[in-house]
Design brief:
single chain; 436 residues; alpha/beta; Rossmann fold; Beta-Lactamase; 2 domains; 7-stranded mixed beta sheet; 5-stranded antiparallel beta sheet; 14 strands; globular; GTP-binding
Length: 436
């Protein structure tokens, strides 16, 4: 059961790293922003490099490094991500900034229109060149994660976030914004929720006040509509862009910007839940519905109480069945995954099953391994009535389910048979998602 860990600077770690994605796979660009010492790098280290939360106290701040130095994390999860983590002060510059450390920039209208006429190969080469140079356009960003330190004065953070939203949304209205109200460990429940409500209300009020003077950059609405027609994951009707041709029309920002708020801490599993929501927000509606339907189907056929499709190295969940999410169940699943990861290095030298054809693709390798029953599985009885079951799906994904112990004991063979079909379906869905 060797699970590769996520790595920075684009290098794949683990023996099966190259099987997860082709070398030039398209990745979703995720910007991780926030003030200095807000906990941005700690989140990445804990989730994607399995660093102990207590060890993050010794991490070097970006403020002590080279100004303008950005780090990219290539995460080969269900939907491959490129996470950009950089110094805090750059968030105020935003796109179009001419400072030495600016990583995000916008494009003039004439260049933007010209870019839309290029074919797919030319556009891909242009994007790859800019990423290689450390530059990224707002139009290529899928998600912005903004981290706010809940234990510090967050009024300046809200102002910076408001400025960031105005600049980026004017260029790319498809960006999803996830606000992490971070470092809430040790705070009372009432204080945590009051802080989140205050941050949310202040930001929405600021966006409402700015709606009267807000304007898209020339050609942004039209280009986003064209992108939607080419198969973009979010249609322009979601933002009220239908019929918008004049970028100076009044636009209700408070109801149009896609905002998500999360209470997070690296000392519990809330940060894994929040990053799970980030990944799920990047999925198209049909893809998310297919995964949830598969989880509902396996729960119905095997009588699971709850099922999670987990990305094991990052301990985030890609999907679950449609029953309400219970934090206590997810905590239990995370603890079990942590326990299994302790033994993953024991199997790190194992190689994929030998293939009869040297040109066998990743898909056929996965299917062949599934047919030969080479995937790991385990069952742990938590108490006399409840058991947690684990089935490896591919090199990163696993199905983890909660089931009554007596049902699992009586129907173990039938459950494994049903899971084999579930595994085949998820592998096929993953191939479509990663090649889209």
């Amino acid at each position: 059961m060797p699970y590769p860990s996520s790595s920075s600077s684009g290098s794949d770690a683990g023996p099966y790293g190259k099987l997860l994605s082709p070398p030039r796979i398209a990745r979703h660009n995720v910007i991780l922003a926030g003030l200095r010492r807000s906990g941005k790098s700690s989140i990445l280290k804990v989730v994607y490099e399995q660093l102990s939360p207590s060890d993050t106290l010794f991490l070097e701040s970006h403020s002590t490094g080279v100004k303008g130095r950005w780090t990219t994390f290539h995460v080969d999860c269900f939907l491959p991500l490129r996470i950009w983590d950089g110094p805090g002060p750059l968030i105020g510059e935003g796109p179009g900034a001419r400072g030495r450390g600016a990583v995000l920039r916008d494009m003039p209208a004439d260049q933007d229109e010209a870019a839309s006429r290029k074919d797919f190969e030319a556009e891909a080469e242009s994007t790859a060149a800019e990423v290689k140079e450390g530059k990224l356009r707002w139009r290529d960003v899928s998600t912005v994660i903004f981290v706010i330190d809940a234990q510090d004065d967050y009024f300046d953070c809200v102002a910076r976030l408001h400025e960031l939203i105005l600049k980026s949304f004017a260029i790319n209205p498809f960006i999803e914004y996830h606000v992490f109200v971070h470092k809430v460990d040790g705070l009372s429940d009432d204080y945590k929720f009051d802080t989140q409500r205050d941050v949310e209300q202040r930001l929405l009020d600021d966006l409402a006040d700015a709606s009267g003077s807000f304007a898209f950059v020339p050609g942004a609405a039209e280009e986003m509509a064209k992108a939607a027609q080419r198969g973009h994951q979010v249609g322009p009707q979601s933002f009220g862009l239908e019929g918008v041709s004049n970028s100076r029309e009044i636009f209700p920002l408070e109801s149009s910007v896609k905002l998500h708020f999360h209470l997070t801490s690296i000392f519990d599993n809330s940060v894994f839940v929040a990053l799970s929501k980030v990944q799920q927000s990047l999925m198209e509606g049909a893809l998310a519905a297919s995964l949830e339907s598969a989880c509902d189907s396996i729960c119905g056929s095997c009588r699971f109480d709850k099922a999670f499709l987990m990305d094991v190295p990052s301990r985030t969940y890609i999907s679950s069945d449609s029953t309400p999410f219970e934090p206590t169940l997810f905590d239990m699943v995370c603890e079990y995954v942590n326990f299994l990861l302790l033994f993953s290095d024991v199997y790190s030298d194992l190689q994929p099953p030998a293939s009869s054809s040297p040109a066998t693709t990743t898909a056929s390798s996965n299917e062949g391994q599934a047919k030969q029953g080479k995937w790991a599985s385990s069952v742990c009885k938590l108490n006399p009535d409840i058991s947690v079951c684990f089935w490896q799906v591919d090199n990163r994904l696993a199905l983890i389910a909660i089931i009554k112990s007596d049902l699992q004991a009586r129907n173990a063979g039938l459950i494994d048979y049903n899971v084999s079909f579930f595994r085949r379906a998820i592998i096929q869905i993953a191939q479509v998602a990663r090649s889209a």
